[in-house]
Specification:
alpha+beta; globular; about 25% strand; 11 helices; Beta-Lactamase; 2 domains; single chain
């Protein structure tokens, strides 16, 4: 395909999938989607290969969505799909790793034939069960499990499934509104892709997707071939709710001849009794993110650029969750996956990596009744710490790395839920010293405006194991979590009183290089 023609068509595809994401954010009910961008949108070809992704989204969602499309269609009679059909699942092992992330996939038809699929995954405010915390003892305590089903069939809603969902969640209006946003965004992608085909006289996108995927894979393999071959090791230690210490170990093997990288997690911590276990697709998502962002971040993120990066997982491992392991807080471990990989890569591309940062965002969910007696369940809202320093620049402060979600403004949260913030500001000096200092964390305090007890689900990490500096840089500061002025380590769901105050200081990032 001619290079100029390819660039024009590629720009059109990016425009389609980005419009799909913008529509989803505009229509969504939940602040976590609308304000924070905790979502993924992807455009797939008829073979269920991800061709393009929206510029908005998190690595955990986007790269998991790439696998989810294949998984959904493997459990579907594709020949029986009809225009107006919409598939759905929140199966953790098929999609993004916990029940809150619901994946919706819509076939795109042209002249009676499927030419592609529009997919989206977003974090929903509530899915019943325990909630976002890590306290469930097995997966069946964690919420409603939706197998691969049709949410819509030839444009007609699956009323039985709708009723099952609404009866199993605390805030059905928000969830159904967000599902409607996902379906609508898929319809927009279908209309725009057919318009592209009309505009350029295409019967389908088969040749276009093949060209994009092949070029992306070749460019990724060429970037890997520039690295010195061999096996490089890295490890990262951090604490999770309850004080449990998790260690992730990686052996990153560069096969320069084949242009492939294998990431082996042998030696990492075993499964946890808490709901922090990570399914393979989510582990793969953050592992590939670490490699891709280091090698050539300007390349498109699609089936081609992801293909040369492989992972190997031990049978008994916290990042290889097996049924019926609890997984609702899987991000607490999953968002640390890049750090041991970056430490391994630091041995061969030191200028392209960063020091350890705060890692997983501190997620919070509040439930109860407001002063008028109306029930509320917040979306998961996030607080970030400092990012690790880079070779030539300081680490960013209060940034959600590696997930990339935005912080929901306190004004939006106070308008949406009966919550009142007592402070929210940078905690200067929490970043590690170094030639380039790590980013600072932040301090946050809040209480609820209720007249009755309320429930708190929160998942801090790095309360004892501070982010490490790199190449002689200083460590960042560990985090602080207090209730009514007292340090708390066990943060499983707890009942709170109306006047209780929660106070947090998120960790700082590690420094890079000696001062």
């Amino acid at each position: 395909m001619d290079g100029v023609e390819l660039q024009i068509l590629w720009s059109n595809l990016i425009g389609i999938v980005s419009e799909q994401a913008r529509a989803l954010q505009r229509i969504a009910f939940s602040p976590i989607v609308r304000e924070a961008g905790d979502l993924a949108n992807g455009l797939f070809d008829a073979k269920a290969r991800m061709v393009a992704q929206a510029v908005t989204g998190t690595p955990g969602h986007i790269n998991s969505l790439a696998a989810a499309a294949r998984n959904l269609l493997a459990h579907t009679d594709v020949k029986a799909l009809r225009p107006g059909d919409v598939l759905i699942t929140n199966d953790p092992w098929m999609s993004a790793g916990h029940f809150f992330d619901i994946t919706v996939l819509s076939p795109i038809f042209r002249d009676g034939h499927i030419i592609g699929y529009a997919g989206s995954t977003i974090h929903h405010s509530d899915i019943g069960g325990y909630g976002i915390g890590s306290g469930a003892r097995d997966i069946h305590e964690e919420g409603l499990w939706i197998p691969v089903m049709k949410l819509y069939e030839e444009g007609r809603p699956n009323e039985t499934l709708f009723e099952i969902i609404k009866r199993n969640v605390r805030t059905p209006d928000a969830l159904m509104g967000d599902l409607g946003a996902q379906v609508s965004s898929g319809m927009i992608a279908s209309d725009r892709l057919n318009a592209l085909c009309d505009r350029y006289g295409l019967d389908d996108i088969a040749q276009l997707s093949e060209e994009i995927i092949q070029r992306s894979e070749k460019a990724t393999r060429d970037a890997i071939r520039k690295l010195p071959g061999g096996t490089y090791h890295g490890s990262s230690r951090f604490d999770v709710p309850g004080g449990e210490i998790i260690e992730l170990k990686t052996a990153v093997t560069v096969d320069a001849e084949a242009g492939e990288i294998m990431i082996d997690f042998e030696g990492s911590s075993g499964p946890s009794a808490m709901g922090i276990n990570v399914v393979p697709a989510y582990t793969h998502a953050y592992a590939t993110f670490a490699i891709r962002s280091t090698l050539n971040p300007d390349l498109p993120n699609n089936a081609g650029s992801l293909a040369p990066i492989k992972i190997k997982l031990p049978d008994e491992c916290v990042v290889n969750a097996r049924y019926p392991s609890p997984v609702n807080a899987r991000h607490v471990v999953g968002m640390y996956v890049p750090f041991p990989i970056l430490k391994a890569l630091a041995q061969i591309v030191p200028d392209a990596v960063i020091a350890e940062g705060s890692g997983a965002v501190w997620t919070i969910q509040v439930q109860g009744r407001d002063a008028a007696g109306k029930p509320f369940t917040s979306s998961m809202f996030n607080y970030s710490g400092g990012m690790g320093a880079r070779a030539t620049k300081p680490g960013l402060s209060a940034i959600c790395y590696p997930t990339g979600v935005s912080a929901v403004p306190v004004e939006v949260l106070e308008a949406s839920y009966p919550i009142a913030f007592t402070c929210k500001e940078l905690e200067h000096g929490t970043g590690g010293a170094g030639k380039q200092p790590g980013g600072d964390g932040q301090r946050i305090g809040y209480r609820m405006r209720t007249q009755s007890p309320w429930l708190l689900n929160t998942i801090p990490s790095r309360l004892s194991q501070a982010p490490e500096g790199l190449f002689g840089g200083g460590d960042g500061a560990a985090g602080v979590f207090r209730i009514n002025g007292e340090d708390v380590v066990d943060t499983r769901k707890r009942q709170m009183q109306p006047d209780d105050e929660v106070f947090m200081i998120t960790p700082g990032g590690g420094g890079y290089g000696k001062v």
